[in-house]
Amino acid sequence: MAAFFSFILAHQSGAADSELLHWIKERLDQIFGTGPWVVVAVMGLIIISIPVFVVVVYLLQAKRRSTATAPPGQEIQE
Fold first, then answer.
1. Would 42 be classed as within a structural domain?
2. Which of 14, 34, 71, 73 is most buried, by CB atoms within 10 Å?
3. Which residues neighbour 66 within 8 Å (Cβ) at sequence distance 6 or greater?
4. The pTM is what?
């Protein structure tokens, strides 16, 4: 337990070096030439697309599973 408390006390308060983060942001802006709203839009699309992808795969697997368990000669109607 003492090791856990010493780990917390040894941890630095800042998340990262602010100068390094500023340098990285400038370089990314130079490379891609995009504004902050483009990054927000791209991240939003990624966040929304993940659950949509999961639901689509689930529905495809459910349909495949239902046709595999249907009695022979009987088709599942959609």
1. yes
2. 34
3. 76
4. 0.48
Summarize the confidence of residues 32-48 as an average pLDDT: 84
Question: Rounded to 5 degrees, what angle do the CA atoms 76, 55, 70 make?
Answer: 20
25: tokens are 């942001």
Q: How far is the C-alpha of 53 from the C-alpha of 10, rounded, in Å?
A: 41
Domain span including residue 55? 35-67
**Within a domain: 59:** yes
The sign of the CA dihedral 38, 42, 47, 53 is: positive
Report the number of distinct structural domains present in the chain.
1
- Residue 74 confidence class, pLDDT cut points 50, 70, 90: low
